[in-house]
Task: structure prediction
Amino acid sequence: MKQLFLASTFFELVCLAAGIDSGVYDSTAAPALLGTDGVESSDELTGGSTDGGRAGDSSGAGDGSGNGSGSRERILLLSNNAAVLELTRPFATTPGADRLLARFDRVLDLNASVHPAHPSSWSPAHNDLPMVEAHLREKWGLGDDSIELVLESPQVNPAIALGRVFSRATIRVHADGLMSYGPTRNQIPLANGQRMSTLHYLPLVPGLEPRLLAEFGIVPVPLAPEAFRAVVREVGEATASELDEALDNDLPDSPWAFAVGQYLAALGLITGEEETALHVEMINEAAARGFSRVVFKPHPAAPPAQLEPLFDAAEKAGVELSILDIPILAEVVIDRLRPGLIVGGFSTALATAREIYEVPALTVGADMLLEAITPYQNSNRIPLTIIAEVCDGSAPVSHSSAEELSSLVAAVSYCMAPDVSRDLRGSAEAFLEQVFGGDDAAAAAGRFRRYFKRKRLTSLRLPGGNVDRFAPRQLVRRTGTLAVLAARRQQKRLATRSKSRRQH
Result:
C-alpha cells in the first residue's frame, strides 16, 4: 500500500509527524459510512511511543520503509499554495524540516507534478481522470498498489483533485487548526465524501468535537498532545542556534510577551492599515499588563510588515520591542522560551499556547474582525469565535466546562452552513432563545450579539432576528396582496391594448 500525505504548511508537517510517531497511521483506513469507525476491523487505532514511527526504528527493518509501517510506503506530497510562488520560501527548507521529512520514505513536489497548473486551481476534466491517474502512478512510482490519501483542506483543490484522480483510494483527513471545529465550507464531490474515514485533529478546545465533514460520518481521532510537544521540542533542538542568534540571547529573566502576526490583509479580510493598527494594539495590551519586553513574530506567509509604527508604539509605552523575523514555528518559541503571555488576533498559536503549553493567551481586535469578515460563512469565523471566547489573557483552567462554548459554536456553525448542519438546528434555536429571550437576555445578548448578524438570523427564522416582521401569515398576506395588484395591472394593460386595436 502507498500512503500519500498532502501538506502545504510547516505546522501541518509537524502534526503529521506527531501522528506518525503515535502510530495513528499504522492502521488501514475504511470508509466511515460503512460503519467501520474509520478503520478496517482487523486494525486498531493505538497510541505508541513518540519514537514509534521515526526513521531508523528497528520495527520497520526488513520492509524497506524504515518507519515501522510494515508494508506501507509513506510518500509526502509538498504543495505550495501561495498566490505568488516566487515570493515564498518552500516550507520544506524551514530549519528543522529535515528531521520531519525523514519520517517519510519519499518526498515529492506536487507543484512540479501539476505544472503549469497551480495546485489551488488544478482540476482535471472528468474524462481525463483515468489518464491523469495513470500518468501520476508512473511519475510517482506507485505501480498498481492500493492508495490511501491523507489530505488537508479536503474541501478545496488540490485535495479534491487528488481524491478525484485516485477514485478508488480511501481518504483520511488531517486538520491542523481550529477550522476543524467548523462546518465544511464548500461542497465536495460525493464520491470523495463517501470514502472519508478518519479526521485526525489536534485537540485545542476541551469538550469540543470537530464538525468538519460530519455530514459524511467521518470519525474524529484526536492527536496525542504529548506527541505534538515531542515533535515541536525536536524541531526546537534543531533550530536552537538560529533562535538564540535572532534574539541575541538577551531575553530577560522576568516574564515577557510574545505577539504573533497573521496575514489577514493579504487574504483581503482587513486593510493593511487595519492590520498594522492591530499589531500596535498587541503591543499596547502587553504593556498594559505589565510586560516591559515584547517579541513580535510576523506570519511566515505575510508580506513585509510595517514595523515603524510598532517601534513608535513600543517607545511610547516604554516597552522594548524585538522582531523575530525567521522561519521558525511560533510553537517552537513557546516551547523553548516560555513567554508569560501570547497575544494576537485569532492565530492557532494562541490556542496551542493555552491548551498545549498552558501559557495565557490574549486576543485583540476581535470585535473589529468579527464585523470585517465577510461573507458570514467565511471559514475563519469559527476560529475567531473560539479565540474570542477563550483567549481573554487569563491563566488556563484545567477541566473547565465547555458546554456554553459548545452551544455557541454549534449555533454559529448552523448559521454559517445550514444545509450541512441540519442536525444543529434544534441546539441553535435553544441557545439563541436563551440568549435573546431568556431571563438574562440583556446581558447575554450584549455578550453574544457580536457573533451573529441580524439579517442572517432573520433569513433562517431564528431567535434574535426580525422574525415577527416576516411571520408566515403576514408573508402570505403580503404575497397575496401583491399578486392581486399585479393581476389588476395586467388586466388594465390588456384592456388598454384591446381598446387601442379597436381604434385602429
Observations:
- Residues 354 and 360 are 6 Å apart (CA to CA).
- The first strand starts at residue 2 and ends at 7.
- Residues 44-68, 473-478 have pLDDT under 50 and may be disordered.
